[in-house]
Amino acid sequence: MIPTPQVGDKIHFVVKANERIAVVLRVNGINTTDNDRVEKEVDQYNKWVLEPGKEYHIRGFYTQDNQVALFVAKDANNTLPDELGSEVLRHGKIDIDVWKEANAVAEALGEPKIQIATRSNKVTLRSVASRGKDLASLQNTITNAATAKVKTRNFIVGGERENAVLETATFQGVPAARMTVEYFQPNRQNNGGVLSPDNQGGAPTGGQGTPPGGQ
Q1: Total-model pTM
Q2: CB under 8 Å, gap of 24 or more: what pairs does 197-200 form?
Q3: What CA–CA distance (Å, rounded) separates 178 from 10?
Q4: How far apart are CA 120 and CA 208, in angstroms?
Q5: Which strand (E) or helix (H) includes residue 1?
Q6: What is the pLDDT of residues 40-87, one digit of tens each?
Q7: pLDDT, tens digit, 9 for 90 and up, residues 151-178
Q8: In this structure, are residues 15 and 23 in contact, taking their beta carbons and an 8 Å threshold?
Q9: I want to staple 167 with a disulfide (CB 3.0 to 4.6 A). Which of 7, 69, 105, 210 is the partner?
């Protein structure tokens, strides 16, 4: 578990990859790319596409009408049901799922490249509250931050809105890693945050998009 933000705190995520990857970032079960609250198989979500060496800032929940609801911490007692995802077990958690490009994996294994049909679906990218040069360093950062005891119970929700126009991109990949980080435990019977690699599942089928760059 990582420390819970204080009421009114502004939160954002900074992400950077050393290779082209796709990321599904969910907060309280809500997908940051398109504000999708419905629980589904993770490969069905729209994804962020990160180009190598470029820094991206995910600042909230992005919507289909070219806006972003900026992340802000809100008292749990004042949080409305429609500000959280449909699956209660994901409330108070940050879920990060990563895909590597299928061609990169095939080349590493000495297999032929996969032919991919071009597809362009709209998707949005939101901010990540920790910075790491790669997935391993991000895991270490989260682990080191998890020593503080949580005394407050505040949710990260969408607040004020701003315009946010996103580019679209195509991506075909295979699952590479998964992390679940708990920042608030609404039910004390839930387990703590988990950091674990996950190489199970099929290739993603949701739309892809390019997140906003650094500011």
Answers
A1: 0.69
A2: 198/97, 199/175, 200/175
A3: 25
A4: 7
A5: none
A6: 999 999 999 999 999 999 999 999 889 999 999 999 999 999 999 999
A7: 557 999 999 999 998 888 888 889 999 9
A8: yes
A9: 210
